[in-house]
Amino acid sequence: MTTAALPARSVRTARPGAVAFRLVRGLLHRLLPLAILVACWEAATRAADSPFFPPPTEIVQRMREMWFSGPASHLFFSSGAGEDIVPSLYRMALGLLVSVVIGVALGLWLGRSERVLAYLNPLLQFARVIPPPTMVPVFIVLFEMGTQMQVASIVFGAVWPVLLNTADGARAVDSTQMATAEVFRLSPYQRIRYLIIPSALPKIFAGLRLALSLSLILMIFAELLPGTSDGLGFQLTNAQSMSDLLTIWSVIVLLGILGYLFNTILLAVERRVLSWHRGARRA
């Protein structure tokens, strides 16, 4: 055994403990500011005793009564979760999926065709700055009231980050790699599959993160419109009409939790899918 091998073996032996310590320390660093904020919020609302700002403990209790008081066989989800959370997540997921499919397909096409992109770029820049709420009267005419119109509102707002980032990523493919692909006579499908899409993936994920947050916002906005009979946005409107501030705060807190969870999941998927990209940049 060489002297150089000793430190390496000691590092490998201590690695599980060091990893656990880093995980616990990272978790504490993440949760400590939130715990302090919730404690301050609880103390301030208890001291103020205002009906407009209920304490976090009462909000959590209302959330449990509305959505998380079901049996263990249903993962503690109650029937209220099926009426409020499931329809909202379905509309958001469908709108985001359609946005990604359209955005990636058009983005790859525009990114590899400079002439088409030059023609359509003014139109794209014009369309992407139109606020989605202003298109609601048009969507009401084109689609049926309800899920179709709500999904269309989500797609119109969420498709632009994916499309423009994908086009940017496809346009930035290294010219040497494209020349090599031409020398090896790769088919158009093989170039897209093995060269263009992997090169554009970092940009696609950047657009996807923006589209995810926009989908959550537009999902609530679409459910605030007439013709909605379920979902978190409908619950928000219903609570507002009855001046039920505790339910309003419960919906707001749940939306924050959902947004944090979705973003965390997407970042984990991005780190997994783009692990080769980070390794190539370090090399």
From TrEMBL:
Signal peptide: none annotated. The chain crosses the membrane at residues 89-111, 200-225, 245-269. It is a multi-pass membrane protein. It is found in: Cell membrane. Keywords: Cell membrane, Membrane, Transmembrane, Transmembrane helix, Transport. The keyword Chloroplast does not apply. Belongs to the binding-protein-dependent transport system permease family. This is ABC-type nitrate/sulfonate/bicarbonate transport system permease component. It comes from Actinomadura algeriensis.
